[in-house]
Task: structure prediction
Amino acid sequence: MRRAIIISVIFIIIILIISVLFIKDSFVKNDSFVNGTETVYVGVTYCGNSVKDGKALIDKVKHYTNLFVLQSGTLQRDLESVNELGDYAISSGLYFLPYFGYYMEEQFSIWLEAAKQKWGEKLLGIYYSDEPGGKMLDDYVEFKNTQTGDSIMKTTYGDIVVEKSDGVVIHYEIGGLIHLFLPVSYMNFNIIGTEKGVYVTFYPNGSIKIDDSEISSMDMQAIVNEIENLSDYGTYEQLLELRPFKDVHEVADQFITRDQHNIDYLNNSTTVFTSDYALYWFDYLAGYDVILAQIGWNHTLNQDISLVRGASRVQNKEWGIVITWKFTFPPYLDTGSEILNQMRTAYECGAKYFVLFNYYKDADNPYGTLKEEHFQALEYFWSNIIKNSQVVHGSIKADTVLILPKNYGWGMRWPEDKIWGIFKPDEMTQSIWNTLITTLKEHGLKTDIIYEDERLITPQNYKHIYYCNKN
Result:
């Protein structure tokens, strides 16, 4: 009898140990607790157009990831497909992060509340818009002057084009020329070739040129005389006074508030993500909770980590990385071994999110641009870095800070990079570049890069503090 009791007790203990181990393994699989303290998230994006292919990708990675990012430009407009893939990802033990480049608030709010109720914490947040800082540097970005109704376009070349409600268009070239279009309603007389209006170029030296070879020299002089009498648009100096974005502070303010309504709405409901490759500091100021720094564009990994980690630390936000293309042609992505090294470096520097960008450009590959070596790297990262207690998350801590001038939104990718995508490099640019290179060379991954801002308190536990030239 006593022997039977002992055997029963031993059997029960074995069952309890197995149960605890199973629960612990399941807990770690779904939530990936780092050293028992903090959750990190590892996953891939799906950018294809098929729910079927999205599910196939989930099945491929679900055993060594805990996050699925739906980043489909097509499926974002189909909430039924978003729901189907969200359900499938979550039932597979993954967190879900859907991307929306835009949304109609009334319809979207209904969907979001239902999604939060259904998925709970497994809905990690909303990935809203993409590359706001990068687009400001390199793309077309439209602003609206709510007071005047003017439409303001920042072009990819760095020019500023202002279109007024009365039809007047002012085009400010980054090089200094100003082009003015005056509709015919501004003219007191009709001239051949000016049925719609006249195009005028103003030069910094004060000269004016009518851009129409069909107008006679006499009529051109008459138009010039009339233009010079205009109270608002008569001279180069008058037009320059009307120019928006006169300095970096005005640009920073406009950038931060441009999409404030939509970001604030999301902030009140969920965690707001975006990814970017520049100006992380200002993305956070605009209201984003999490920035995924794009790694792989042949940028300096050290510099990108220093910028995004510094910005998140001072502003009390979270950060991660998304491994994106190294090439614009096949094989697009870097090697699996290099990607593994990048993820490990970011992990040791304290990143919380790790995502592989998987664009569906190759029709012959069912898993987009991700090759088998990339999946192997992801699996190794999960099994041998995330679950390895010998690799300490956040073990590389910044003890050095480089402080940039307030609102100096320089791209920092090369010495001639534009400032806010609008201004050419100025007298401070080369000095900042030299200080940046020297600091990163001396302190490496222990460097944070931040900006002066009286609204924010710089942590006091930096051992080395470097200020760039003040603006």
